[in-house]
């Protein structure tokens, strides 16, 4: 496991963007596919802004990139301004030369009877693309990765093998999302579709970015407690996963580390 504490939140974003750019440039140079697992939320915004800038100013090209987003609210229309599909369109997809057919986001508008099936297809497509070259992650205040919320009744091995699926959002997650939904908790979807730990933890490189003092407590738990399904991000410490993981923090997020 590699731990980087950047001087500022902006430097943390630049550090993550450089890692992603390295993979994108390599794919472009060798004309091979690069598969990226992407996150939404506040944390990656400056990372995407830097990738867009590099595309504009340094001509880095996304033509060989294939993306799979981690999660989507459920139910939600892909065209909803608050959907993660819309977020990705606004922050990245519409601003770089990523082929539209290469950008995958779970569809929050599939009928309930097909929600899990849609997730299973997502897993199959990722597997068929050879797995993820890089998974970008943020951490929820409850330690979630993607929308894999704490599930203390499961063993670590069972949790680590979970497929992509429909999940019920944790109260903490919905409370944190309420601001985006006009401060109205009732307007926050109760469910989500999420890529499962099986695919996330198998990525050839995992970059976890956490910024700000609101993340300090959970970052300290995820990095210091034994892997536990009470803190899903602690599974990044598993011996078969840790060598592929880079944590990038700002000083506030790192402030409670021993
Ligand atoms: C988003 C996602 C979530 C967020 C996490 C942190 O696609 O998978 O796990 O990364 O909730 O969100 P922010 O960055 O808004 O603090």
TrEMBL record:
InterPro entries from the entry?
Glc/Gal-6P_isomerase (IPR006148), GlcN6P_deaminase-like (IPR052960), Glucosamine6P_isomerase (IPR004547), Glucosamine6P_isomerase_CS (IPR018321), NagB/RpiA_transferase-like (IPR037171)
Which ranges carry the Glucosamine/galactosamine-6-phosphate isomerase domain? 9-237
Q: Which PROSITE patterns does the record cross-reference, listed alphabetically? A: GLC_GALNAC_ISOMERASE
Q: Name one Pfam family in it.
A: Glucosamine_iso
Q: Name one GO biological process term.
A: N-acetylglucosamine metabolic process
Q: Which GO terms describe its molecular function?
A: glucosamine-6-phosphate deaminase activity; isomerase activity
Q: Locate the transmembrane regions by residue number.
A: none
Q: Which UniProt keywords apply?
A: Isomerase
What is the designated name of this protein?
Answer: Glucosamine/galactosamine-6-phosphate isomerase
Species of origin reads Isosphaera pallida (strain ATCC 43644 / DSM 9630 / IS1B)
